[in-house]
Specification:
Phosphatase 2c, domain 1; four-stranded antiparallel beta sheet; 8 strands; 20% strand; Serine/threonine-protein phosphatase; transmembrane helix; PPM-type_phosphatase-like_dom; PPM-type-like_dom_sf; membrane
């Protein structure tokens, strides 16, 4: 699996495949930015399993999207405009599968990035560490540059909220729930053309009879 963070201040882009995770700590609130590509996570999103059931399900380690395991990997791409002091946590499921979100929040709030990463790894190992534990913590400075990028239009419109993007699209086509949807063009089918033609013939026949007179 892979979760990648690109900082292009004052913006961030996240590419995600698999069941590693990216979290954002902002103004005291911890938000999970990515969606797990796993069998149990998909069942949770479908309402077929509860989050508690997913943690102990026998198929909790089955991933549905990964690099190298499938002919093609589905890449989730997120973007957001950053705020001063934002903290990112990237981690494998060896951490997120063991520690509760409230524990992650407390450690990230009270320790600098390097110390927070060490403590999170240590806590995961203390709680059993059933899988590999990889952790990256990034804290942004209190002052961010003012800049603009070609891809940043939907990120600016979202006002700091994460925006789900699609690979290969032009910047003006990147989807965001904040921007107004484009109107649909008018489509004319062959039935419409035939109907219009009939109306033209009827009108022409009436006009011809009117001008000829009795």
């Amino acid at each position: 699996t892979a979760t990648c963070l690109v900082l292009d201040l004052p913006y961030a882009l996240i590419a995600h495949v698999g069941d590693s995770r990216a979290y954002l700590l902002r103004k005291g609130e911890l938000t999970l930015l990515t969606e797990d590509h796993s069998w149990v996570a998909e069942r949770v999103r479908q309402g077929l399993l509860s989050p508690e059931e997913a943690k102990t399900h026998r198929w909790r380690n089955v991933i549905t999207n990964a690099l190298g395991s499938f002919p093609q990997a589905r890449v989730d791409l997120l973007g957001l405009k950053l705020e001063p002091g934002d903290v990112f946590l990237l981690c494998t499921d060896g951490l997120s599968g063991v520690l509760e979100d409230r524990t992650l929040l407390e450690v990230l709030k009270h320790f600098p990035p390097e110390e927070a990463a060490r403590r999170l790894v240590a806590l995961a190992n203390e709680w059993g560490g059933p899988d590999n534990v990889s952790v990256v913590v990034v804290r942004l400075p209190e002052e961010l540059p003012r800049a603009s990028r070609p891809y940043a239009l939907p990120l600016e419109a979202a006002k700091g909220a994460p925006v789900r993007l699609k690979l290969g699209q032009e910047p003006e086509e990147l989807p965001t729930q904040v921007m107004e949807p484009k109107g649909r063009g008018i489509r004319v089918g062959w039935r419409d053309i035939l109907l219009i033609g009939l109306w033209v013939l009827v009108v022409a026949y009436i006009l011809l009879g009117y001008f000829k007179g009795p």
